[in-house]
Write a structure and sequence with these properties.
With 66 residues, this protein is mainly alpha-helical. Helices cover 65% and strands 0% of the residues.
Length: 66
């Protein structure tokens, strides 16, 4: 069973959001995909608007690194 990292706030749209993110990577090289991920993380951090929340999320995500 996969670990659940965080409670989903997307409800029924979780799969749709995942599909949008994956589609954004279509046709990109590995380097372009990494650059897109960095931009997405920075944009999402700005949208969250709380350095503390971003720190908490980073710690949570890091705890699940294999």
């Amino acid at each position: 069973m996969a670990k659940q990292i965080y409670d989903s706030q997307l409800g029924d749209a979780t799969d749709d959001a995942y599909a949008v993110i994956m589609a954004a990577h279509d046709g990109l090289s590995e380097a372009q995909s990494h650059a897109l991920n960095v931009r997405l993380v920075l944009l999402m951090a700005n949208a969250i608007g709380s350095a503390r929340a971003v720190e908490d999320l980073c710690q949570t995500a890091r705890a699940y690194v294999d």
